[in-house]
């Protein structure tokens, strides 16, 4: 049984991120010390694994300095795995829990497919630089960690953003996953061009993938966040493990959006992940979770 939710003030520390990510009071925690944070995260990840808890949480009164202290002391490794979206001004973090094996299996299987298709097209190994889950800082003081990311090797220096981001969700996290896509597309000065959302519903036996990009029509306009870049879902691919059927294939990743400079010898304008690969890897994914 879950402990009583950590007390959270009604106004102090509350920011737009909590509203945007629809984090309930029960899923908020006011940071006071490491042990209380650990207890809170362990309770919530257990609830998530058991199918009765959300993947996204909010930590109040939490700054980047607190996060850096956890990392430099090695204490972050003692916590359940998570990705962080940090609002330094409001001292608030949105935490996305990574529930162990399901999350990692989905990530590894996709990376194998992606890198395999890159090799099949004859693209050099170093043409995409895997930048993992490193934290990126936006101009408005926010910072965020992806599940996986890839940067063209032509982009040098720490201030450049990845062109391709992967975000993985489980349980009932579609709403928040889609918000992650919007954040990356709106806050990276147009450098992040493709987002792949991977949603794994173990109970239903389904794997859903959405590709998001900048809208090309109508012309760019300012959104409520002040960004000129309008995020848009452009593809939906589904694998149903109950029937072992794939719909919406092939999964398309446009090479001209992944790279700043496309080599002239590339035989195709896209990385295309077809039904056979999607079916085989969908079966492998659910077999790996048994």
UniProtKB/TrEMBL annotation:
<protein>
    <recommendedName>
        <fullName>Restriction endonuclease domain-containing protein</fullName>
    </recommendedName>
</protein>
């Amino acid at each position: 049984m879950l402990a009583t939710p950590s007390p959270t003030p009604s106004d102090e520390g509350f920011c737009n991120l909590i509203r945007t990510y629809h984090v309930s009071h029960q899923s908020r925690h006011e940071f006071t010390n490491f042990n209380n944070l650990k207890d809170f995260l362990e309770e919530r990840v257990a609830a998530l694994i058991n199918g009765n808890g959300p993947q996204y949480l909010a930590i109040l009164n939490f700054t980047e300095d607190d996060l850096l202290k956890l990392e430099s002391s090695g204490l972050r490794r003692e916590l359940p795995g998570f990705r962080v979206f940090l609002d330094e001004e409001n001292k608030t973090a949105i935490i996305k829990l990574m529930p162990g094996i399901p999350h990692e299996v989905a990530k590894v299987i996709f990376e194998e497919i992606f890198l395999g298709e890159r090799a099949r097209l004859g693209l050099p190994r170093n043409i995409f630089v895997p930048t993992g889950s490193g934290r990126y800082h936006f101009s408005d003081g926010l910072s965020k960690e992806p599940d996986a990311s890839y940067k063209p090797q032509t982009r040098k220096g720490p201030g450049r953003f990845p062109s391709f981001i992967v975000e993985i969700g489980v349980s009932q996290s579609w709403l928040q996953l889609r918000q992650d896509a919007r954040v990356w597309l709106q806050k990276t000065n147009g450098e992040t061009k493709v987002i792949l959302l991977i949603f794994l519903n173990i109970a239903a036996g389904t794997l859903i993938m959405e590709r998001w990009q900048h809208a090309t029509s109508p012309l760019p306009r300012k959104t409520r966040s002040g960004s000129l870049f309008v995020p848009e879902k452009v593809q939906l691919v589904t694998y149903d493990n109950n029937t072992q059927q794939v719909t919406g294939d092939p999964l398309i990743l446009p090479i001209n959006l992944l790279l700043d400079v496309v080599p002239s010898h590339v035989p195709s304008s896209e990385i295309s992940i077809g039904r056979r690969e999607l079916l085989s890897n969908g079966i492998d994914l659910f077999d790996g979770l048994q």
